[in-house]
Model the fold of this input.
Amino acid sequence: MGLDVIEEKNLNDVITYALDYPTMVLSEAGSWPTTNMEDFAVGLYVGYVGGVFFDGFLRRNKRFLDSEEHTDFHTIISKRTTEIKLKIQAHLHKK
Done:
């Protein structure tokens, strides 16, 4: 069945919030030895968004995502990857 409209909105809200406050997600990025900071930062973003969304989903629905819902999660993240990368680039080049 996939994510319902409310859960899709919740996921997009988490992504938008993380993009509006990049220092919240990227504050520790500089302290890790990495060869590609942008790719590492994308991983931090996806991890942060996934953690916040999965925790909220579990609290609201008293269960974990099924395979179709998990696929929808990844589809939504994939659609917004360019936006996430641009925000990270802008933030990293500000420093």
DSSP finds five helices and no strands in the chain. Residues 5-94 form one domain. The chain has a mean pLDDT of 91.
